[in-house]
Automatic annotation (TrEMBL), chain A:
GO terms for cellular component: membrane. This is Molybdate transport system ATP-binding protein. Residues 1-231 form the ABC transporter domain. PANTHER family: SPERMIDINE/PUTRESCINE IMPORT ATP-BINDING PROTEIN POTA, SPERMIDINE_PUTRESCINE IMPORT ATP-BINDING PROTEIN POTA. PROSITE patterns: ABC_TRANSPORTER_1 (PS00211), ABC_TRANSPORTER_2 (PS50893), MOP (PS51866).
Automatic annotation (TrEMBL), chain B:
Part of the ABC transporter complex CysAWTP (TC 3.A.1.6.1) involved in sulfate/thiosulfate import. Probably responsible for the translocation of the substrate across the membrane. Part of the binding-protein-dependent transport system for molybdenum; probably responsible for the translocation of the substrate across the membrane. The complex is composed of two ATP-binding proteins (CysA), two transmembrane proteins (CysT and CysW) and a solute-binding protein (CysP). It is found in: Cell membrane; Membrane. GO terms for cellular component: plasma membrane. This is Molybdenum transport system permease. It comes from Actinoplanes regularis. Keywords: Cell membrane, Membrane, Molybdenum, Sulfate transport, Transmembrane, Transmembrane helix, Transport. GO terms for molecular function: ABC-type sulfate transporter activity; molybdate ion transmembrane transporter activity. It comes from the Bacteria. Residues 50-254 form the ABC transmembrane type-1 domain.
Length: 346, 262
């Protein structure tokens, strides 16, 4: 059931955000995109901090398009938390309930309950400057949730944390988001945060939705270079002609899938095999390539190849040594049709 | 730290400048009649002038805070047509000779003035040559100091805290009282002290607008001037010394409490 329905249009100095977004009750949606895609602008528009140039926002059946931020049932966890430095953790959490007309005692009781939920019962009297990054993040979450928001917004909630704290906090955040009965929108540029925390991903580039769906669909069938890079796939667009997809350059890639018309072809870097000379035998897709770059990628090496198509390939260090991989090296690349996926672009 | 010799072309004028600023103060201390100081300090004229100065400067600072902080907030947080003009107008009293300010006040609030005539006929209130007039004159001169320093503090404060407060249900007013004010409190305190010091030393506007009546409008600077005119150099030195001590105390308090605070 749809709890939040929005069409956000924000125009500002040459940038245009035009985003249609719906979130169901209890659902967590991740707004994922590169820097400057308009993710934070969308979040600010939902919170009422940036006015809409057009479109609308309804929440739980109420039209909030022109409602000021303080009257919206929306809670926000800001990127660097913005805990009030002059208030204790407890007073930070009690701030929202107090502004909603709750008396001091009740507000403090609510704050204590939330601090307990995020595991910070003993830290209520501390000022934000005496909290660690992870603790501050939890206080910020407690503060946003203490007003029982219909819509919870999180702006890069884990970006300010170090890798170790991030891992723990991510798991904990997932638990809290699952318990939130309202709608949740998470803005992030980290695909892992999105995959772990969200039920559905909405990918924005240049102020527009380029793809949306659950994690499995998006990782299997990316529709833009950005998404393909996020999920680690080589992605090309061309015309499907049965088992073959002809790219604009004229190059043809063969897949086991059958597609006709405008289509994408994708394969993972690990599917690319490199040979010192033209291989004979089974692979349907072979082409001459020139090595342009080598980088470490986990236990393997990721190489970039120029040629009829630009490709990322993963190879083992042993293979790299055997192939004598230095930039400028001429090689043959091969991908089996069975490892290549083709799917319609429309 | 030092990179080679300090050039004489910079060092000599620097030392001269320092001497120029310090020498008069040394002169004041050197000429102070230390032996008769205790009894001079307790003379009724001195006590009266000091009391009047402290009371009027504190009242003026209080009113300046009441009017100046909202004015600074308006300038820092609200975009309105003519904002630059308003800011320019506020700085005028800052650069205006205080005597001119006093005359301007007379023309506005004097018995025949723009607003003064109406105040007089309607409420029977007349400000010139009263203690209230001293407060008004001091406010006129000191308010710009407060507005400018508080506006600077507000501009330096992170407005995203105010946005965070709004998302938690705080109206603009409660955001101001519960978030903005505590965040810029050090800036307001510094502005207030600056304002108070300026009001305490006010001379030109006060003597023009409020006159020089002992016990009513004769503040410390006016008393210094009059004592000096009457040929009592020792008396003038004692009064000056008091003002010097008060000023240095404020400076020290400012440095320790606010200026060096993070």
């Amino acid at each position: 059931m749809t709890l939040m329905d929005a069409h956000l249009i924000v125009e500002r100095g040459g940038f245009r955000l035009d985003l249609e977004l719906t979130i169901g009750r209890g659902e967590t949606v991740a707004l994922l995109g590169p820097n400057g895609a308009g993710k934070t602008t969308a979040l600010r528009a939902l919170a009422g901090l940036t006015p809409l140039s057009g479109g609308f926002l309804t929440l739980d059946g109420r039209d909030l398009s022109a409602t000021p931020p303080e009257q919206r049932p929306v809670g926000v966890v800001f990127q660097d938390y913005l805990l009030f430095p002059h208030l204790s953790a407890r007073d930070n959490v009690a701030f929202g309930p107090r502004r909603h007309g709750v008396d001091r005692r009740t507000a403090h009781a609510t704050a204590d309950r939330w601090l307990e939920r995020v595991g910070l019962t003993d830290h209520g009297r501390r000022k934000p400057r005496n909290l660690s990054g992870g603790q501050a993040q939890r206080v910020a979450l407690a503060r946003a949730l203490a007003v029982d928001p219909v819509l919870l917004l999180l702006d890069e909630p884990l970006a300010a944390l170090d890798a170790r704290t991030r891992l723990e906090t991510r798991a904990e955040l997932r638990r809290h988001l699952a318990a939130h009965p309202g709608a949740t929108l998470l803005v992030t540029h980290d695909p892992l945060d999105a995959l772990v925390l969200a039920d559905r991903l909405v990918i924005v580039e240049d102020g527009r939705v380029v793809q949306e769906g659950d994690a499995a669909t998006i990782t299997a069938r990316p529709r833009t270079d950005y998404v393909a890079q996020l999920v680690g796939l080589n992605l090309y667009r061309g015309r499907g002609e049965g088992h073959a997809v002809r790219l604009e350059s004229g190059f043809e890639l063969t897949a086991t899938d059958v597609v006709h018309g405008d289509a994408f072809v994708a394969f993972p870097p690990a599917a690319v095999a490199l040979h010192p000379s033209r291989p004979d035998g089974s692979p349907r897709n072979t082409w001459p390539a020139t090595l342009t770059d080598i980088q470490r990628h986990g236990d393997n090496l990721r190489v970039r190849l120029d040629g009829p198509i630009v490709v990322a390939a993963d190879i083992t260090p042993a293979a790299a040594a055997y192939l004598d991989l230095v930039p400028g090296r001429e090689l043959w690349a091969a991908v089996k049709a069975s490892e290549t996926r083709a799917y319609p672009a429309e | 730290m030092t990179r080679g010799r300090i050039p004489g072309a910079l060092l000599v004028p620097a030392i001269c400048g320092l001497i120029f600023l310090v020498l008069p103060l040394v002169g004041l201390l050197w000429r102070t009649p230390w032996s008769t100081l205790p009894q001079r300090l307790t003379e009724p004229e001195v006590v009266e002038a000091l009391r009047l100065s402290l009371v009027t400067a504190s009242l003026a600072t209080g009113f300046c805070l009441l009017l100046g902080v909202p004015l600074a907030w308006l300038l820092a947080r609200v975009t309105f047509p003519g904002r630059r003009l308003v800011r320019a107008l506020i700085t005028v009293p800052l650069v205006l000779p205080p005597v001119v300010g006093g005359i301007a006040l007379l023309l506005a609030l004097g018995r025949r003035g723009l607003l003064g005539g109406w105040l007089d006929s309607t409420f029977g209130v007349s400000l010139p040559f009263t203690t209230a007039g001293v407060v008004v004159a001091e406010m006129f001169v000191a308010l710009p100091f407060l507005v400018i320093s508080v506006e600077g503090a507000l501009r330096g404060a992170d407005t995203r805290y105010e946005e965070a407060a709004a998302t938690l249900g705080a109206t603009r007013w409660t955001t101001f009282t519960h978030v903005t004010l505590p965040l810029v409190a050090p800036g307001i305190a510094a502005g207030g002290v600056l304002c108070w010091a300026r009001a305490l030393g006010e001379f030109g506007a006060t003597i023009t607008f409020a006159g020089n009546y002992p016990g009513i409008t004769q503040t410390m600077p006016l008393a210094v001037y009059q004592t000096m005119e009457s040929g009592d150099l020792d008396g003038a030195v004692v009064l000056s010394l008091i003002l010097l001590v008060v000023s240095v105390t404020i400076l020290a308090a400012l440095r320790d409490r606010w200026l060096t605070a993070p």
